[in-house]
Design goal:
This protein has 4 helices and 2 strands, in the order ααββαα. The protein is mainly alpha-helical. The protein has a domain of 90 residues: Photosynthetic Reaction Center, subunit C, domain 2. The protein has a two-stranded antiparallel ribbon with strand order 1-2. The longest helix is centred in the first third of the chain and has 24 residues. The mean pLDDT is 82.
Length: 146
């Protein structure tokens, strides 16, 4: 009876190793060059444009990719599950993107010669939380009141 259990366990391990070897032997699936789970940006955005936008976010907020995206590996190179919505910061980014788009199209665009648009940098200036500017100092009383 004991020999049967040992032989069964060895066969199980051997078949598991064979399955792993077959899986490793298969070439990796090529990227279909489509982005998945884009909810604010267009699905057909060019890769370069998407990367440039993401780099803009990292500069404007002073963060790295793992701030919004789930990191699946650090070595041999950083790898991320970009479509995942597991991190709440990603949803916050979507809300902020919609907000800035609305500000730019419904307000800034209506100002003649505005020569600017609102971006993440407008408020964040390299920090995850927007900088809060102190209120302007109270105006001095008229007539030099003492």
């Amino acid at each position: 009876m004991r020999h049967v259990i040992v032989i069964s366990a060895l066969l199980l391990v051997l078949s598991g190793c064979t399955a792993i070897q077959q899986q490793k032997a298969q070439p990796p699936r090529p990227d279909d060059l489509h982005f998945h789970n884009l909810q604010v940006l267009p699905q057909n955005i060019a890769r370069k444009d998407l990367v440039d936008i993401m780099k803009g976010f990292t500069r404007a907020l002073g963060v790295r990719c793992q701030h919004c995206h789930v990191q699946t590996a650090e070595t041999p190179k950083e790898t991320f599950d970009f479509p995942s919505d597991a991190k709440p910061k990603k949803d916050a980014a979507r809300v902020m993107m919609r907000m800035t788009e609305r500000i730019n199209t419904q307000y800034v665009a209506k100002i003649n010669n505005a020569h600017t648009t609102v971006t993440c940098w407008t408020c964040h200036r390299g920090h995850t939380q927007p900088d809060i500017q102190p209120s302007a100092p109270a105006a001095a009383p008229v007539g030099g009141g003492r």
